[in-house]
Design a protein that fits this description.
Elements (H helix, E strand, L loop, with lengths): L1 H32 L3 H7 L1 H13 L5 H26 L2 E2 L5 E2 L8 H7 L4 E3 L2 E3 L2 H24 L22 H12 L8 E7 L2 E7 L5 E7 L2 E4 L1
Antiparallel strand pairs: 1-2, 3-4, 5-6, 6-7, 7-8
Helix pairs in contact: 1-3, 1-6, 3-4, 4-6
C-alpha cells in the first residue's frame, strides 16, 4: 500500500511540474510574439495559479525551485505595473512623446530592483517603458527556466532575451553589459544579474546591477574593461 501511495504521489508531482512548466513557457512565448495589455493582465494569473498547485502537489522539491518561480511570478507582475503606468499615468511630453516619471508613479522600487535604465526628458526623470518591460520579461524567463532545470536536474543554459512590448523589441545585451553581468554573478551579487546603463562619468560608462540582498552595485567600464566602484 505504501508503495502504491508513493507511485501515485510521484505521478501527481510530475503532472504538477509539467503543468507549471507549460504555464511559464506559454507566457514567455506569448510576450515574444506580441500581446495586448488586457490579455497580458489575464495571462499572468496562470503561472501564479500553477505555482500554487505545484507547492501543494510537490512539496519535496528543492525550495530554491519555488523561490525562483515566485521571483518570476513577481517579475511578470512588476512588468504589468510598469506597462499599466505607461498607459494610464504617463504625461504628454509634446514632441518628446509620453513621459513616464518613475518617482511620481511609485515605480522606483522596480527601477532599483531590476536596474532599469532611466533618462531625463523635459527636466523629468523618464523610464522608457518598452525597454523596461522587455528587460523584466527577460529576467522572468531566465529565472523560471533555471527553476525547472533545478527541478528536473538538467544542465543550466544561458537564454536569449525574452523580448519586449509588441511594438518595440528589447535591445540585446552589449559586450560591456555581458561583462558587468558576469562580474556581478561571480561576485555573488545576483544569480541572474541585469545590467542597466546609467550614464557616462569621467569618460567611463556606468552600469547599475540590482543585488538580491537589496542593494545596487555600480560598475564602470572603459574600452571593454569593467570594474566595480
Amino acid at each position: 500500500l505504501m508503495q502504491l501511495q508513493g507511485t501515485k504521489s510521484s505521478g501527481t508531482q510530475v503532472t504538477a511540474l509539467k503543468r507549471a512548466k507549460s504555464a511559464f513557457a506559454a507566457i514567455a512565448s506569448t510576450v515574444q510574439s506580441g500581446v495586448s495589455f488586457n490579455n497580458y493582465s489575464v495571462l499572468i494569473m496562470d503561472p501564479a495559479r500553477e505555482l500554487g498547485v505545484l507547492r501543494q502537489e510537490a512539496p519535496t522539491l528543492d525550495p530554491l525551485v519555488f523561490e525562483k518561480l515566485q521571483a518570476a511570478v513577481a517579475a511578470y507582475n512588476d512588468a504589468a505595473s510598469v506597462w499599466r503606468a505607461s498607459i494610464y499615468q504617463s504625461q504628454d511630453g509634446g514632441f518628446m512623446g509620453r513621459v513616464l516619471n518613475p518617482e511620481r508613479t511609485g515605480l522606483m522600487p522596480i527601477v532599483h530592483k531590476y536596474g532599469l535604465y532611466t533618462t531625463t526628458v523635459l527636466f523629468n526623470t523618464h523610464l522608457p517603458a518598452d525597454a523596461a518591460v522587455g528587460k523584466i520579461w527577460r529576467y522572468a524567463e531566465m529565472t523560471a527556466t533555471e527553476a525547472f532545470e533545478i527541478a528536473e536536474g538538467t544542465p543550466r543554459q544561458k537564454l536569449e532575451p525574452a523580448g519586449a512590448l509588441p511594438t518595440v523589441a528589447a535591445p540585446p545585451s552589449t559586450e560591456e553589459e555581458s561583462t558587468v553581468e558576469r562580474l556581478a554573478r561571480d561576485s555573488g551579487c545576483n544569480t541572474h544579474p541585469v545590467a542597466a546603463k546609467t550614464g557616462v562619468k569621467d569618460g567611463q560608462t556606468e552600469y547599475a546591477v540590482y543585488c538580491t540582498k537589496g542593494h545596487t552595485q555600480i560598475y564602470r567600464c572603459s574600452s571593454g574593461n569593467c570594474t566595480t566602484r
